[in-house]
Design brief:
It is a single chain. By secondary structure, this protein is mainly α. The protein is built from 20 helices and 4 strands. The strands form 2 sheets. It has a two-stranded antiparallel sheet. The chain has a two-stranded antiparallel sheet with strand order 3-4. Helix 4 crosses helix 10 and helix 6 runs antiparallel to helix 19. The longest helix has 24 residues.
Length: about 450
């Protein structure tokens, strides 16, 4: 197998510096502007609420640490040779994929994603989703290299984002498929790249004629992401008093019933088909580290904080050990998958789908939608003015009919340009743009650099 084919980049080769190609990719990601902006994007609890809660950047760093630990444990397995030639390069590759996996998430997390998806469907007959946006960030939006590439016609210069190697781009793809028109009518659709011409060309180059498939490194990254947000959201929720851990440890029947209902509601794989919820919850909470938290509600004393931190650290260690047993990578299944599912259900029940958050979630979606509408009606407000001018000269919108048979303008290029700009915003930047756009106020200098 020719590994140099996987390590090739879209641009002409750059000088070697003693680092492996995947280590170079990891370093480019850490130093990128898109990665820095993750510090201002919410994980679950808004960044303006307090400085304790995880943000997208702390989640990405913790995901990378877990991914690196898994990769180190299984680097000597035969499976590692499908993505790297030297086993010692696998941890760098997985770390790079973990650092990049959330780059495309918009402000306000899932709420922003829903708002941008609705606008892209309406004005562009296209979709928005965090995973292909991450791919677009590292292959186009980030400013690293412009010039002749291997991803299109020989005489066509283009931006290639961070110019990552093929093997890292493959590791980034949890969903190695490209958007199709049929996906417009689907719910909860996941894919790896948009069908916009530039994205499709880069996607084809990444796979180089091979059938796209989830790689060994991508599988590790996906599991590391699952472990990170399942355990850390539980920790954040308990610390904030949102997840009622004390009552659950005391076996409050009402709360356990709510958790079981949410767990079963989200169980698409039949993990709990035979009544495994009760034993799973019991096993999850039998750790000695929880003994202090059984005596008093979480009160943020030093003892309580230490108990919670030690419990989640041991839990992460146990999950890593379970998916690396015998030095081979194992997809979570059985009890391991059930423990992760119960932890996720706690976050959904008491942090994500709280009734007292419905108002703010509605407001976040409306804020993103109105920013999009403002740019659509007055694109001269876009900071990337030269790109809008070039787009306006080169293409014209077409007219489509809505379900009410009234005409609407469909302009995929314009919609994507606006969507790219909004998706790159931090939560605070989006609020400031909204205030400037609709209230005529300005709190700080508004510059967003890709």
């Amino acid at each position: 197998m020719r590994y140099d084919r996987f390590l090739v980049r879209a641009s002409p080769a750059s000088p070697t510096t003693g680092r492996s190609e995947v280590a170079k990719d990891r370093d480019r990601l850490i130093h990128s502007s898109g990665f820095r902006r993750l510090q201002g994007k919410s994980q679950i609890v808004g960044v303006e609420v307090g400085d304790f809660f995880r943000t997208r950047i702390t989640h990405s760093l913790e995901c990378a640490q877990i991914g690196r630990a898994i990769a180190t444990a299984v680097a000597q397995s035969d499976d590692s040779h499908s993505v790297v030639e030297e086993p010692l390069h696998l941890p760098d590759l997985v770390e790079a994929a973990c650092l990049a996996h959330d780059l495309g998430h918009p402000p306000f997390g899932h709420n922003g994603e829903l708002a941008l998806r609705a606008k892209m469907q309406k004005y562009g007959d296209r979709l928005f989703e965090g995973n292909p946006q991450s791919f677009r960030m590292v292959t186009y939006l980030e400013s690293k290299f412009f010039g002749p590439t291997q991803t299109g016609p020989p005489d066509e210069d283009r931006w290639v984002g961070l110019d990552l190697s093929r093997t890292t781009l493959r590791a980034l793809m949890k969903y190695p498929t490209i958007e199709t028109p049929a996906m417009l009518g689907e719910q909860h659709v996941k894919f790896g790249a948009y069908r916009d011409p530039q994205d499709a060309a880069y996607f084809d180059w990444v796979w180089d004629g091979e059938r796209p498939a989830k790689t060994f490194a991508a599988r590790i990254m996906d599991v590391a992401d699952d472990i990170a947000y399942a355990v850390h959201d539980f920790e954040d929720g308990t610390w904030a008093g949102m997840i009622p851990l004390y009552e659950l440890l005391l076996e409050n029947e009402h709360l356990i019933g709510l958790l079981e209902t949410k767990t079963l509601e989200r169980d698409r794989d039949g993990l709990f088909a035979n009544g495994e919820f009760g034993p799973t919850l019991t096993a999850l909470f039998e750790a000695d580290e929880l003994e202090y938290l059984r005596r008093v509600p979480f009160d943020r004393t030093r003892w309580a904080r230490a108990a919670l931190k030690n419990y989640t650290a041991i839990l992460i260690g146990d999950l890593i050990a379970a998916v690396t047993a015998g030095g081979r990578f194992l997809e979570p299944s059985g009890d391991v998958a059930r423990r992760i599912a119960v932890l996720k259900a706690m976050a959904w029940q008491w942090m994500i789908q709280r009734t007292d958050r419905e108002t703010i979630q509605f407001g976040q979606r409306r804020l993103v939608e109105r920013i999009f509408d403002g740019y659509w009606e007055h694109p001269e407000m876009l900071p990337r003015r030269e790109e809008w001018d070039a787009l306006e000269r080169s293409s014209k919108p077409r007219v489509a009919l809505t379900y009410r048979r009234s005409p609407r303008r469909v302009w995929p290029g314009k919609a994507r340009l606006i969507c790219d700009h909004i998706a790159g915003m931090t939560d605070g930047y989006a609020r400031d743009v909204y205030d400037q756009m609709y209230r005529g106020t300005q709190r700080r200098e508004l510059h967003l650099t890709y």
